[in-house]
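#lab-general

N.A. 3:47 PM
ok so I finally got the sequence cleaned up, no stray characters, all 109 residues accounted for. can someone with queue access submit it? mine expired

B.Y. 3:52 PM
send it over

N.A. 3:53 PM
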Amino acid sequence: MHRKGEALVELGGEPEDWARFNHYVASIAATESHILATSPRGNCYGIWDKATRELLEINALPDASGVVVKNGEFHVSSGIGRVVKINADLAKQTFVSGIQWDNHWSAIT
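B.Y. 4:20 PM
back already:
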């Protein structure tokens, strides 16, 4: 994690947590309170607390690809057509879109 004028700071997680990402992160997005990173090779995404840098959870999602923030909520795409919407309390809703997404995602409003 980096803030202008400050040194780089590592996000938390045990070596076995980081191994779940299979040496590859495709997309990263941040809200006011959380950071989310996707890993299509690891078939997962992770969520960190922005203030403490603690890894809060790693969730399975086949071919987890893109992530954007819209209205303070994460939207995570997958190459198998799933989209996961995650609100500020980290509650999740999963939708099937029928589109095979990659990690090149942008929110257009």
